[in-house]
# Entry
Amino acid sequence: MIREERQFTVDLAVIGSGLAGFAASIFAINRGIRTAQIGNTGAVAYTTGYLDLFGRLAADQLLDDPWRGLRQLAASQPQHPLARVTEAEVRAAFDEFVAFLTEAGVPYGQAGERNVMALTPAGTIKPTLCVPSTMQGGVDALAARARCLIVDFRGLRGFSARQVVANLRQEWPQLRAEQLVFPGMEHGELYPEVMARSLEVPACREELAARIRDVLGDADVVGLPAILGMHHPHLVMAEMERLIGRPLFEIPTMPPAVPGIRLREMFEQVFPTRGLTLIPQQKVDAVRFADEAVRLSLADSYGPIAISAQTVILATGRFLSGGLLASFDGISEPLIGLPVTQPPSREGWFREQYMDKEGHPVHTAGIVTDADFRPLSAEGGPYDRRLFAAGLILAHQDWIRGRCGAGIALASAFRAVDAVGRELARSGGQSGKHQSAEGRRDV
Amino acid sequence: MSEATIPTINFRERAIELLPEGASFEACLTCGLCSSGCPASGLANMDPRKFIRMAMLGMDEELSTTPWVWLCTQCKRCQHVCPMNIDISQLVFYARGNWPDEKKPSGIVRSCQLARSTDSTSAMGLPPQDFVFVVEDVLGEVREQQPAFAELQAPMDKEGAYFFVNQNSREPMSEPDEMVPLWKIFHLVGADWTYSSTGWAAENFCMFSGDEAAWYEVVKKRVDAVNKLGCAVWLNTECGHSYYTMWHGIQRFGLEANFRLENLVSCYARWIREGKLPVNADWNRDGIRFTVQDPCQIIRKAYGDALAEDMRFVVRKLVGDENFIDMQPNRSANYCCGGGGGFLQAGMTDQRRLYGRRKFDQIQATGAAYVLTPCHNCHSQMEDIGHHYGGNYRVIHFWTLICLSLGILGENERTYLGPDLAGIGL
Ligand SMILES: Cc1cc2nc3c(=O)[nH]c(=O)nc-3n(C[C@H](O)[C@H](O)[C@H](O)COP(=O)(O)OP(=O)(O)OC[C@H]3O[C@@H](n4cnc5c(N)ncnc54)[C@H](O)[C@@H]3O)c2cc1C
Ligand code: SF4
Ligand code: SF4
Ligand code: SF4
# Structure
């Protein structure tokens, strides 16, 4: 059969579709850089929707003021990716990212001066910087210890109103739990995704609102699992609030959860309309640094694709996403073969105590870069001027302990895209056209 | 009931064979995104994550015999949303093939048998001479009754024609007038095309029966027919799985095909861009709203979003930007309608409608009066769930709306239009 290879020529290729990859693409298209992004869903699919900047400096030190925390970090861990960017860059990165999400139909509150205390699926509380606007009501209700009803649904695993109430009763006495049957889903296991889509149908909203009104009691505000629509959730929420007559808020659920799917579907729909070439659900097979361009090769179900890029941002994440590979001989970076800084031997990966307060050395393994987030070669200089790295693949950070996943992703992507812009200007690579050039060739 | 038993498959072993490196079942994180996004979840007490877990646990007998393999439409949505890119549809295909014919849903088996019973490869068993007759007959009538189309052509077995056009059997069998709008479109753009008396049919249920040899046989016959006429392009009509079974079959069986495969939707888009099809939305003065259904067989499973964009370009031109509304989710993330995978032929009506409930909700959420789709299966299923769940939308082919917009839609070519459109341009 006669088949075609699809060819794209771009200024920037972003490899990876986690938060770092999406953020890099947003910053790039906002700067008029012709961009292609490749990668299948990473950890974004599991997100609560909260964007953490920096929540914990040491094991038992939750941060109220993340900005102060960053200044402390700069002193204690100067190699940490968040210590290598300026506060102004971090602020600009969050503002630009959040503005994009909001405009694209998944509104977020702005980054403030302080962390907010937000509800987790289990009914514990965690510090974070930005929350989706549908979840802001939970932050406020908790702060005010409002008279609040939490509702869950029969058959929905991964969210229990009773558990939330049990965990918070001590400090939030006016909290009450109710269980309802979701309209049209009387039997079997329920998925938040299905419920969210169903609430996009007006008849379902009316029926659910009626059921909630029946158990409202004296509640001034109602918390629901995150099911208020998949697209334009704030509109679904506003409509439900009108029908119920009380303010609502969403609480994240355990994966598979709606907030991650919302972000992903939004990106997949919005990016192409902004001139970005998005190749979702595929992995780059090989990267070759030729003189005139960096050549990426991959294939989707339709056939081979060749991307020729002036610059590349590697945002392939850690072990779970395939950005790093752990094997018997140590940790490697499988796509390009970049050097990975790591403990000298496997024995040094973990400390003896699983819950050790110092964390485990393996978690800080990763790619070492220069100040512009260019990965370094074994000799110490940039591996290639045109290559940058962003996100959790970077070394010298332990994002789980630091509660700083989104912070690292956004801030490093911001600096890297800035450096990409400078590199393009230097090499005269940027053509000023926003659309990527596209061609086809029979193979 | 027959006495035949279903042999037990070793699913773990098969998975290692069938799934690409890195996407094996061992890589499954049990995150549940697949099940959450699969309309067949919960049917027959099964879902994709459970299927994988049972396979890992070696529960081969249960999996070999579960009727769920006939309820999964092999739409590959689970793979699309899986962070590890795991594809269970290949194992479902394999499991289907493992059922003895007597135990498989008889409708699917029968459709495959019929496709092999004549050189037409028609799943309705329409033989070549009958197809030729119907085409000639309808053509004669149009030439006589529609003076603007006195010169209309429907070439048969024309060697060296650029396009080899296939044809879903539903039209020549039961609604022959529905062939005419497409002929008119070809006429207008001056396409060099032909039908073939052999290998002309579109549908191919042999793939859905899991019968690899039969699938091969049908695709082979079609490839031979195109090669014989020396056409440059096999042009797929408004039908989803016809494309996938041919495209995927040619690669899978390593067939020598000296032509390219194309879809009508991309041709419509091209012809509109080139000005050959001067469609417009002036007829839609009342702002009637339209949505589109992305058939997974040509979008998610084959072309990806490029074709989905062409489809939206065509629709927007036809109905007006402001009258088009997308279903959510859409494009490669769209849900299968529930008519695919042979579901419509399999006779399991209740389950098919439960599966289709998601599609129904999606359509309802748009508030559209019409759904356009370039797939006959999607078409029938969406009509059926619409009636069943009390929807008030209609489903139409692209060719109907294109001809309506151009003012060349004949009186007998309006079966699927509602009263709001039935009189326009007559
Ligand atoms: C369970 C879980 C919950 C989390 N919850 C939160 C939260 O509530 N708040 C928060 O701020 N952060 C959270 N995080 C962290 C957050 O998801 C990350 O900070 C963020 O995704 C940034 O990571 P990343 O983009 O660097 O990597 P990832 O998200 O891991 O993405 C890496 C991407 O690269 C792709 N990839 C890998 N190899 C290739 C290749 N060869 N070609 C193309 N693509 C490739 C992967 O498919 C993936 O898309 C959570 C993470 C996890 C795992
Ligand atoms: S989506 Fe993929 S990783 Fe998640 S449970 Fe399903 S198969 Fe496993
Ligand atoms: S192929 Fe489609 S129907 Fe089958 S399990 Fe996957 S998502 Fe469900
Ligand atoms: S009927 Fe339509 S939606 Fe369903 S599998 Fe076929 S092409 Fe996909």
Notes: The domain at 6-105+261-439 of chain A is CATH 3.50.50.60 (FAD/NAD(P)-binding domain).
